[in-house]
Sequence to fold (911 residues):
Amino acid sequence: MAERGFSVRSLPGFGTTAIVTFLALYAPIVTLVVYSFNAGPTISSWEGVSLRWYADAWQNRAVQDAAIRSLVLATLASAIATSVATLAALGTTRTGRFRGRTLIYTLINQPLMVPEIVTAVALLIFFAMIKVATGYQGLGYLVLAHAAFCVPFAYLPIRARLEGMDLTLETAAADLYASPYATFRHVTLPLLAPGIGAGAMLAFVISLDDVVITEFVKSAGQETLPTYMLGQMRRAISPEVNAISTALLVLTILLLTAFFLLNRKRG
Amino acid sequence: MKILAGLLASTLLATGAQAAGELNIFNWGNYTNPELIKKFEAAHGVKVTVTDYDSNTTALTKIEAGGHGFDIVVPSANYMPIFVEKGLLLEARPDQMENFKNVDPRWVEVSWDSGRRYSVPWQWGTTGIAVNTTAYAGDPNTSAIFMDPPPELEGKVNVIPEMSDVMALAIMYMGGKPCTEDRELLRKVRDQLVAAKPKWQSMDYGMTEKLSSSDTMASVNWNGSTMRARLNNPNVVYGYPKEGYPVWMDSAAILADAKNVENAKLFLNFIMDPENAAMISDFAKYSNGILGSEAFMPDEMKNAPEIVVPAAAAGQGVFLPTCPSSANDLYTAIWTDLQK
Amino acid sequence: MRAAPPEVAAERARIRANWLLSTPALVLLAIAASGPLLIVVLYSVLEAGEYSGVVWRLSGEGWFQVFLERDIFDDTVGLADAHLSIFWRSVRLSLLTTLITLVLGFPTAWFIATRSPSQRPLWLFLITIPFWTNLLIRTFAIMEVIRNEGILNLSLMGLGLIDRPIQILYTDTAVLIGMAYVYLPLMVLPLYAAMERFDFRLVEAGYDLYATRLRVLRRVILPLVRPGIVAGSILVFVPSLGAYVTPRVLGGGKNLMIGNLIDLQFGQGRNWPLGAALSMTLLVIVAIALVFYVRAVTRGEDRG
Fold:
């Protein structure tokens, strides 16, 4: 074999482009985070480190409301979506093909394929009819909408985990005369737990981040953190948004780290 | 599992049943003083939410669609009759409220709410042209800034998407009167607007911030918003178009399907108090219609060029009337053409 | 009648169980995702209400106005130029976004895939964080960079390269930059997934046969990672087409994309049927793109 002057794995310019891309990806976000600690009100003037924007955001009643609502919504939506997705995953994985399985896949993954604006418009129209008919204007509509579009995000990790699971343990349990329900509770579920946890976390993050559907479906006074920020972005360019963004970012990173760690445990 | 179900149920029901002390206000963006809201909340033990809209049409669309959950809305004078005719407003009789005596008599007998049976004055002002003088040193007192932008401002002018204001300015620029149905004139208006649009930078709101931060160099804009921009960015001036400019008033009214009528009435009465009216003016920098508020108004507003109309421009202001629906249909069609 | 043999009965019971397990998910999605889409189809053929909603009368106006328009003054019917230019802008910007993310994403994915296995999780983590960061935050971050008083302009002015800020915000370019920034991770991840399984011995063999790196790239690497390229392209193209937040924040209300045009009909445009028809049109365009994807992937599999 001839001596090559380069590693087989390197391609010209690729390394540089990659590093530049990484930097380009992070620079705006890092800037955002850094300026959330700026004592001054604009990017053009750095006036020293300060936590005033965090204090402002913390004391801002609208932000508090929106933050609590976002968290409650994400928790409820994630819980519903994960439960429903777990059942669906059990029903569609590790079984042979059956008629209608493709239909189930399509319906479950529909939120991934249909543009959010279309779903948002559909829900606006649909819920408007119900709102007028029943007069109910609570959080229910948002919970329902969020739970629905979180389902595919919960479903995929659970399914992946289920497919990778070793059947021998369950077969062993069956051999020991355990009932299907007992097998499920004491063998399958614990083994599936990391997948369910991952799915729940993904669903939580997805719900927390949603803008478009929430923007269209919300009723009076039902701001979530993203819709509040969208409103602020269209008018006030105050670093308060930087502070809120940084806080959300930290939360996302924490959740993601947990997700990564959970997924590395090949149980 | 049970805990979750309980949490779910309580959340849904708690937000469904309106608590006794709530008020949901639907108002123009950047138009409600947060201090005013805090004062009202403290005085009456009511939890207030404020939701923004950016145009009369958006407000009307949202309200008419139903299921909105708001109690108070603040339409402009020319839209008030539309709201009333569609039965969207409650006849709240502010004229029988305690603080009604403070309302300036010239704003009581108005064609769009005679005797003030539905609404209470919020703010009034003019629509003109805001220009950042570092980008353009010429005369800002003309609608040509947006109808036929000078070369220095090409690609730098914003036009706020408020149909009635922009259409009025455009029609008067082309020599007509507001509410005209002269098709030949309107065709020219449409053609001129469509030709000018590529030279605009944007059709957006939030000009107070964008002019302050120099993201936008010129815009059709309201006087108060321009004044706030000028206080942040001294290069901004306000021009009164010599071809004619709209004068408008926004009034607060209670919605017919409001869930918190008592609290809404308390609020209407609250804003007729001179000190509170001055708070509203202080925030948004527009004039209010309440007598006695002058004592509480900030000094900078007393002589501001945006508030005190210069003598040269006084004659060209036209209070926007409500146009007949045939005229409105034509304007809407032109506007839709333009918005795309 | 003879009872079904036990295997068939067990099979049927199993299928029934599967359906039962899937039912909650299906019901939830039918109510809050798929079902309402049918209402949209219905609304697209009704008459527009004066300010909102619809009047329950059939009308072809909604669909008519998607592609054609009637001049207000002389009643002539012509192509709806404004709509068509919005469609064209959406497709054009989405294609450009896909191209940019591919050009930047390919080397990035390659880079991650060629790191040592101990280093790789770190790089993956680094590319995943922007992916999961809120879309609004990323759009806002880019806005802060390209504004008149943003980082880019301030740096250029500070370096003396320009003396007045370049107006980037509120142009098509701003929307393009924003979308490329926001969707870049979506291109990198599938590319990486395809490259991860890459057998570098093939590349070695390629070098033995073809000698130059460029030809190896073209003849060996690209065909093998093609499924990744196709997947990434679709993952970027489809959301770009339906983008709403990014063009709204960066476009200034003037450079509308299809998503914004739809939004307009439910607000100032006061034309719900048109909004519904436009939504369906978007859905059709997306479906066509997905069909191309499926074709491209299966064709690749046949060849491979």
Summary: The longest helix of chain A spans residues 61-92. Residues 124 and 196 of chain A are 31 Å apart (CA to CA). The two ends of chain A are 43 Å apart (CA to CA). Chain A touches chain B at residues 42, 65, 72, 75-76, 79, 127-128, 130-132, 135-140, 143, 219-223, 231, 234-237 (CB under 8 Å).
